[in-house]
Amino acid sequence: DEYKVDGFRYDYTQGIGWKVTEPTKGILGWVNRIHQDYNGTIYQIAEHLPESPALIYYSGLTGGWHDSYRDEIFDEARFKNTSLTEFENLILDLGAYPGNDIPSTPNRYSNRTEPVNANVNHDEQSLIYEMVTFQGVPLTEAILRDKLYSTFMFTSLGIPMLWQGLEFSAPRGWPDDNIRLSYRPLEWYFYQLDRGKSHFNYFKKLIFQRKYNPALYDGILRKLYRHETEKVLVWGFEEQAANSKVIAVANLSSQQRTINNVPWLASGNWYDIFDQTIFFADSTIINNFTIPAYTARVFSNKPDSALVAVENFVVSLPSEFKLEQNYPNPFNPATIIRYDIPTEGLVTLKIYDILGREVATLVNEVKQVGSYEVVLNANKLTSGIYFYQLKINSYVETRKMILIR
């Protein structure tokens, strides 16, 4: 109540235990009390491994780790051996591995808000790190495949969860399980690399669709076709009230594929969610469709502009100047600086050392009204205290930051 917490994630709930006959004890006691006291308005998520849809069914929990989703995605990244049937049932849908709880049924999640889908978390290797370090996959291929696998998080029935750095291709991981829980600072500098920007923009498009396209947040899953030989999967979502439809085609193979007689949800114009180019479907069966290796194509029957209109999405423009504290701080070697400007003008953002000497210029250009962020990569700077200063028109603000090697 005091800190306005809106939810809890419980660690290792298998170690706490639960019995249906004792709803006030163990993990049930805690979550049921919170669920009751706050009328179900608090998010409560369990890391319960092996996963247990039954635990969620018999408790006040909102959801839980979708372990089968993560394991199947991870196995596909490592060994490329996940069947398309498993993709449909355990990754796109609400299926789960058999659990060891009593009762063990229901063994499927009951709705799209219960399973939490994550390709990486604090306990798991990132897919890029796993592929490159342990599977010998070339980096460029690993980055491409990471985008492909990440598409499933946002085009499935579960709730997508981003672990820090995934959205800008940071290869989070560890070479030895003995240091699995050691301190590993977030690798912010990947954010400013070309690969990081490409990843970030890819995720941005997926997140936009998931937030504002009714087909993805409220639609019915349509399992359209499994092209087994080509290892190409086709699925979609339909939401009737808003007449919103999404179709996804994923090529999980290492070769470009052309698939024939592809079922489509409707004829007409379809908009590629990543670049808004139009794909015209002349019927509900596409004669042939070509898709590059390790690529997902996602289409919506509505352009982005229509989705924004549907949701009455309004971008609030800043009403005052603001220079935020850099994050992280202290940092090594990269940090992000955010600022707001309520008027157009020539913006300069410079870095000074403790003696007042200018060491870097991050921004020196005319900017429109808006909120901005910029990354400082301090690879060439030594440890110490630095100052960053924002100037626009007559406004000047300076803040302090610390670089620790």
Number of helices: 9
Terminal CA distance reads 38 Å
**Oligomer, anyone?**
single chain
Looking at the structure, what is the overall shape?
globular
In percent, how helical is the residue content? 10-25%
Can you tell me the residue ranges where pLDDT is under 50 for at least 5 consecutive residues?
none
The biggest beta sheet reads: 6 strands, antiparallel
Please state the CA-atom Rg, rounded to the nearest Å: 24 Å
Give the tally of β-strands.
Answer: 20
Strands across the major sheet, in which order?
6-7-8-13-10-11
Q: Could you state the order of secondary-structure elements as H and E?
A: EHEHEHHEHHEHHEEEEEEEEHEEEEEEE
Strand content: 25-35%
Helix/strand structural class: alpha+beta
Query: Would you tell me the overall average pLDDT?
Result: 94
Please tell me about this protein's structure.
The protein is an alpha+beta fold. The chain is 24% helix and 31% strand. It is built from 9 helices and 20 strands. Strands 6-7-8-13-10-11 form a 6-stranded antiparallel beta sheet. A hairpin with a 2-residue loop joins strand 19 (384-392) and strand 20 (395-403). Helix 3 (67-79) packs antiparallel against helix 4 (84-92). The longest helix has 19 residues, at 194-212. The two termini are 38 Å apart. The model has no long low-confidence stretch (mean pLDDT 94).
Summarize this structure as a short list of keywords or feature phrases.
405 residues, alpha+beta, five-stranded parallel beta sheet, 20 strands, 31% strand, globular
Short structural description:
This protein has 405 residues and is α+β, with helices and mostly antiparallel strands.
